[in-house]
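Subject: Protein record for review, amino acid sequence with backbone structure tokens
Category: Structural biology, sequence-to-fold work with a learned token vocabulary.
Format: Residues in single-letter code; tokens as whole numbers, each standing for a residue.
Body of memo: The sequence and its backbone structure tokens, given next.
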Amino acid sequence: MTAQTKVRHFLSMSDLSPGEIADVLERATAFKKGDRTRSLAGRNAVLIFEKPSLRTKLTFDIAVHELGGHPIYMAPQEVMLGKREPVKDVARMVSRVADLAVVRTFGHALIEEFAQAASIPVVNALSDAEHPCQALADLLTIRQHFGGIKGVRVAYIGDGNNVAASLALGLAATGGHLTIASPAGYELPERYAGQAISIGQKTGGTLSMVRKPASAAKGADFVYTDVWTSMGQEAETAIRLKAFAGYQVNPPLLDLAGKGVKFMHDMPAHPGEEISQGLFDDPRSIVFDQAENRLHAQAGLLDFLFS
């Protein structure tokens, strides 16, 4: 909450307590079963996107609509946060006419600046530092396939990026065990690693970081990966392809995990790089359950924020 407005924002997975995450997941589960609330009835939600999107735009638009609200999408060229006008001015303008701002941007400091100036709830739909809405969907998917989250073993293979950061915080808060395998120089930032370890000391969750993908995958219930080069990092593609050689998730790596292992990816993917060709069609893949759950998890979050 901000000291001035007492408005609840969701910029990081750490903005929700373990009990609140459980609450959101319960609401998401009910939503997925067909239960509906009207917690956004008569409310306007502005979706400000500085990055292109398929899953995030689609699922937020539908979630707002199905909760009774009116989604208004603002494309990258329409707002240009901090370029056409100051971020705080955009936040104050949006706050005067809307009830919710969903912001998808590059620098995390920008969304923090937006939230500080806003007098309405602000939701992080992705920043370079975190992707907390994705993590909520991931937790919902794990819960769906594992029967719960506490005690689950998840291996994350690849870049310690925004997806990894939010996943680490989310699993720590819910008592899960995460092992991340990354090449040197691409580990989970110390800020998030320390935070996840601290949270896990209270919940029973753990975080381990290793170098070899096989070490992470062995005995895992879920194996998760993301692209090696994210939006905004295209100039680093050649360097990253070299650095991540040997970090591909493929059937032999999945075979090292538990018998009932499931494969996860937040999409879009680059087959031939972080995953082998055809891996989405492997019977162990649950990537489309995961993608669908973006809708249900975000509906649960919005219902939580506005109930």
Remarks:
- Residues 287-306 form the longest helix (20 residues).
